[in-house]
Amino acid sequence: MKNIVIGSGPAGRLASLKLGRLGEDVLLIEKNHIAGTCLNEGCMVICALTDITKFIETNNRFNRHGFVKSQLDVSYEKIVEKIVETQEKLRYLEQLENESVGNTVIFGEAIINGESVEVNNESYEYENLLIATGARPFIPDIKGSEYGLTNKDMLKLDEVPEKLNIIGGGILACEIANIYSKLGSEVNVIARSQFLKEIGQNTREYVLKKILQDINIYENTSVTEITKDKVITDKNEEMEGTAFFATGRIPNSEIADGFVELNPDRTIKVNEMMQTSVDNVYAAGDVIGGYRLTPVARREGVTAAINMAGYSTKVNYSCIPQTLSLNMEVGFFENEKNDCSDDEKATIAIPGIAGPGVFWNILDGDTGYTEIEFDKKKNKINRIESVSPSSPSDLAYLSYLMREDYDLDDYEDFLEVHPTTDANFKIIKGMWL
Which of 174, 246, 278, 341 has the lowest CB atom count within 10 Å? Predict the structure, then answer.
């Protein structure tokens, strides 16, 4: 077999698809379910549950305004059932997609033996190998940690926990807190440092006051012990409820230990072409660390595939857009190459306006917030943070402008689709250009 890919998450699946479309022979090996963490335990599950909480919040808002009279009866068990049903359909389609370009897909645990890979007691030699084995939740060394849940358990719950103690202060902790709070849990978030330090103070304050207002946040606090029905903090506080770990992820790199070079954090070390310390062995996705975002993993997988096929390309990690999947999305990115001084910066911020999905929020004053920092000298964007239903799509194309090093004057002729990008139209075109 010319090319073997281990792992069918975003990196491995897209790499295999690219190789197949390039006419290459491919064997794709998956240990569990095709499509990896994103579909089966991560992003897609978060988005599916957030769709439910958005509907609940919209229903409640319309009831408050008085033009809808309805009472919802939400079944978590039925939600899980339908998520699993959808996952099964998507797994089938994504496997079919890979097989449609001539790739072979097999299921089993792979073992690397030098220039061959063993799976299901069969040995396959390769010319090129891609390791895309992903990552798993990190469980801190805390007494009683076996009682804690992770994102892998969200579809195993029979019902919404009455009380939930989320350990962690990053994006995942925030998204989980939003979901279960809106579904009826009493939620505590326990963060070792500042909660949501990935975003700026103004955006963070908006999220806390307008979106996560029913959640109890404990910053600069650590959990010292977990029991079946409570957690104990370093401040001797006892919080009743189920523990949920949102404390980061560790790479599934054991398969490559002793075969290729690993970084100090146990991620697989690669160059910009996704090559490891062994010339014909590549790695991509969460197993190499970095951003750990589905679109980035896809790009890394495709980059590896192009190089495995004998072409040459590198990954560009600048201006990566990120989102928080909440009842109103939060998008943000920063131009890491920005080197302007403080007096060369200009920051413009406005509250959200009546764009898509927020017209009926105006009566409550919950229309979002957008803040953009410009480099006045170079006429470029340094940083954007946007709380808006359209922020993920807005920032996708704006980050592209920055990544390709376009001047903002090049944006002037861009034609939006009304009303999806009104906030950026008003800030960039109306105020800046």
Answer: 341
CB atoms within 10 A of CB 426: 16
pTM over 0.85: yes
| CA–CA separation, 302 and 286 (whole Å) | 14
Which letter, b or e, does each residue of 273-297 get, where b requires 16 or more Cβ atoms within 10 Å of its Cβ? Answer: ebbbeeeebbbbbbbbbbebbbebb
The structural domains of the chain, ordered by start, are 3-137+249-308 (3.50.50.60), 145-245 (3.50.50.60), 322-432 (3.30.390.30)
**Average confidence (pLDDT) over 28-47:** 96
**Is 306 in contact with 18 (CB distance < 8 Å)?**
yes
Asked if 56 contacts 72 with a C-beta cutoff of 8 angstroms, the reply is yes
Query: Which tens digit of pLDDT belongs to each residue from 112-152?
Result: 999 999 999 999 999 999 999 999 999 999 999 999 999 99
Which two three-digit tokens encode residue 73? 């009866």
Token match 């413009």: residue?
A: 348
Residue 380 β-bridge partners: 375
Contact 126, 115 (CB under 8 A): yes
DSSP three-state, residue 157: coil
Lowest mean pLDDT across 32-36, 168-172, 201-205, 397-401 = 397-401
In DSSP terms, 64 is beta-bridged to none
Q: Are 30 and 325 in contact (CB under 8 A)?
A: no
Residue 367 near residue 350 (C-beta atoms within 8 A): no
